[in-house]
Amino acid sequence: MTKYAKTRVLSIFEAGSYNAFFIGTQGFIFTTLALYFNASPLFISIMTSFPIIAQMFQIFSSRINQIIGSKKKSLVINAFISRTLFVLLPVFIFFEVRSEYIILIIILLFSFFGTFVGNTWTVLIKSVVPFEQRGKYFGLRNIFSSITGIIMLYLYSLFLEFPNFKTGLLLVTSFMAFFSILSAVLLMKHEFPEESEKISSFNLNIFVPFKDRNFRNFLVFMFVWSFAIEFARPYFSYYEVAILNINYQFLGNMGILTSVISIFLYLLYGAVADRFGSKNVLSLGILLSTFSPMMYFLMNASNYRSILFLNAIFSAFAWSAINLAIFNLLLEISKEPSENYIAANSFIAGSAAIVGSLSGGFLANNLKNVEIHFMGDPYHGIQLIFIIGFIIRIISVILLTEVEAMEKPIRYKGIFSPEAALFKRREINLPFDLFKRNRKKIKKSELPSPVDVEREDENQEILNDAKEDKE
């Protein structure tokens, strides 16, 4: 594996350069860029969902590789097609050519060809990073990627504050174009083992996972969760930029705060997931994510600073948990061949993204000029989307309880109970089981007496203490 040490180093720099330009396709930076090209809320909604929608086409990755004849060639060709498109943005801005269809086509092609890059890269990189080194290696790679993202987020927000807005936008898109080409060149320099270049004749069948009851429950959860995210996601930035006109540098600083906190939380959540299960971590992350739409519903021109500061912290705790756990949970409940399950998940998430972005976009188009008064207080029509998004996120975490996965109760010492001095063990489970469907109804007469419950608890504590002493 020392032969591919150069490739492992190049992959780290590729991740940094990719994130340096990709950060410009997210959040308030992309919303500002889209508004410059006269994009409507519907177009913004569709464009921000393209990367998720494009995952539906991963089922054709093997066919694309067969047509091109090599996984390495397929990786490089798709990378150059998808990433060099961003060179056109500063050209159009310089000549003041504005059309929402320009940026729509660029993001569409970037997402479509980019999905083949991600799929092929995942297969190839597994061949050059030994299994026992993957945790440390990908942790280092993600940290470096996050650092470059933080630096460029700061610079992009600084450029957008230039007195000459066109100059600032030219600088943003020029840097994006440079790093997009650099990332494609670095991919071209990668070396991969010959055995990883072999093109498999395996044919995907996304219908197989639907016969698995537990995975079917997971797909139902994924559809609702993906719908909830894509329904409301574009309008957080739209509300900040187009309605409240918040300072770009302040938005950039809040994004940096979230990224810095997330770097440390990835280490914490990794340990928690290994001990208590990815499902518990994911449930916690989704619950914390529900705070964002509620805070945006309450946010206005007079209190946005404090609310965005709190939201930056909550977002770090929520999304670092979600990003870490959701893919791990997918792998945990998938059966072999896992490609079928991953493809089915991508298809469902992409379908939900289409429905969510279209429905959210049409609603936003009708609400963008509406003002609503509730108990004498004014609210912008867009803020109704946040309330709907909040409700759907709650529904998704309830649906997650139907998925069977490794879960271990969280233990704590009851410091607020009378027994605290005795350091008796207590166990808690997140109360999501209360919402499980098809639960057997228990008559009151069938419930155990309080005395029996107390004895059972005491016996369980003795067994637990004995087990811990043995360990």
Automatic annotation (TrEMBL):
Region entry Disordered, spans: 446-471
Organism superkingdom: Bacteria
Keywords: Membrane, Transmembrane, Transmembrane helix
A matching Pfam family: MFS_1
Chain segments annotated as transmembrane: 12-36, 42-62, 74-95, 101-125, 137-156, 168-188, 218-236, 248-269, 281-301, 307-330, 342-364, 384-403
Gene Ontology terms for molecular function: transmembrane transporter activity
PANTHER family, sorted: INTEGRAL MEMBRANE TRANSPORT PROTEIN-RELATED, MAJOR FACILITATOR SUPERFAMILY (MFS) PROFILE DOMAIN-CONTAINING PROTEIN
Designated name of the protein: MFS transporter
Organism per entry: Petrotoga olearia DSM 13574
